[in-house]
Amino acid sequence: MPTSPCYLALTDADWRERVAAARDLLSPCRLCPRECGVDRLQGERGVCRAGAVAEVSSHNAHHGEEPPISGERGSGTIFLTHCNLRCVFCQNFPISHLGHGAPAPAPELAAIMLRLQARGVHNLNFVTPTPQMPFIVEALALAVKDGFRLPMVWNCGGYESMDALRVLDGIVDIYLPDMKYDDDAAAKKISNVSDYVAHNRAAIREMHRQVGDLKVDDAGIATRGLIIRHLVLPEGLAGSRGVLEFIAREISPATAISLMSQYFPAHQAFATPGVERRINAEEYAEAVDALEEFGLEEGWVQEEPLE
Fold it and tell me: What pLDDT, on a 0 to 100 scale, did the predictor assign at position 1?
């Protein structure tokens, strides 16, 4: 059955409160667990390099997401610049590391949302939204007044702060986070963050508390819930078995998981031992075996990679 986006329950007073709470996290900046402490409202930039206004790289109907996200009409995807992680293998580094994009003040970002809705996409999908969260909330409040009604997808790297997630409670319908690592040494080596695992697991727990397991409508399109992405890395560096065991035992055995085999070295990966090659079929098969071992039956596996 069709389900209305959760944010439609918010009153004007609720929106004002959420926008104010979100902007408060910019000065000093504590939008993510790095807590850089820079004053973004005064033009200072921290590790992620994001500033005082949203910056958009591109927006379009995207057909390459998980089936309940893309459906037949595509997901209304907005690629935002900057990222709070610094993954050496980042395939989108011109956007996430170098900030290739253009400023999009709240009215302009709201207009983009409405244009995507007019194209008939199934949902609105913000990619790498963490550093831009206050601007997204502000723009969504404007778009709702002009008739925006699509489910909101939060497509993030999984390194999230609890303060930011509390602002998003009742706004985000579908969380689409990564669970990248089971080991902080690997996270430091590959994504330049030394405390990923604890923050990631706390964020996943909170996301699941807010939206629960994935729910779809009669056409198989996601309306609410959690989908976790896990990218298998060479030499077991992602700790796939530990990640999947955590999901099964501490989140829900009904969690929808997108187990990805598509890793390939990009950006600085060629100079980083362990991630300078693609994964092989055996490495991916071990992760698939762990899915089966822990009874995780919801979600998607990909074709095994070439040797």
Answer: 42
pLDDT in tens, 100-113: 999 999 999 999 99
- For residue 243, report the phi and psi dihedrals to the nearest 5 degrees: -60, -45
Rounded to whole angstroms, how far apart are CA atoms 215 and 194? Answer: 34
Task: Determine the residue type at 115.
Answer: R
Domain assignment of residue 144, yes or no: yes
- Whether 157 is in a domain gets the answer yes
Output the CA–CA distances (angstroms, integers) from residue 45 to 2, 21, 170, in the order listed.
41, 20, 29
For residue 153, the cross-strand partners are 125, 174
- Residue type, position 212, single letter: G
Contacts of 64 (CB under 8 A, 6+ apart): 70
Residues of the chain with pLDDT under 70: 1-2, 305-307
145: left (phi over 0), alpha (psi -120 to 50) or beta: alpha
- The verdict on residue 306 lying in a domain is no
The half-sphere exposure of 105 on its side-chain side, counting CA atoms within 13 A, is 1
Question: Which structural domain range is residue 27 located in?
Answer: 6-301
Domain of 49: which CATH number? Answer: 3.20.20.70
Residue 301 near residue 285 (C-beta atoms within 8 A): no
* Domain count along the chain: 1
Q: What is the pLDDT of residues 198-244, one digit of tens each?
A: 999 999 999 999 999 999 999 999 999 999 999 999 999 999 999 99
Cut 0.90: pTM above it: yes
Q: In degrees, to the nearest 5, what angle opens at C-alpha 52 toward C-alphas 46 and 55?
A: 95
> To 10 degrees, what angle do helices 12-24 and 133-145 make?
160
Report the alpha-carbon distance of residue 125 to residue 123 in Å, rounded: 6
| Structure-block tokens of residue 257 | 């998981």
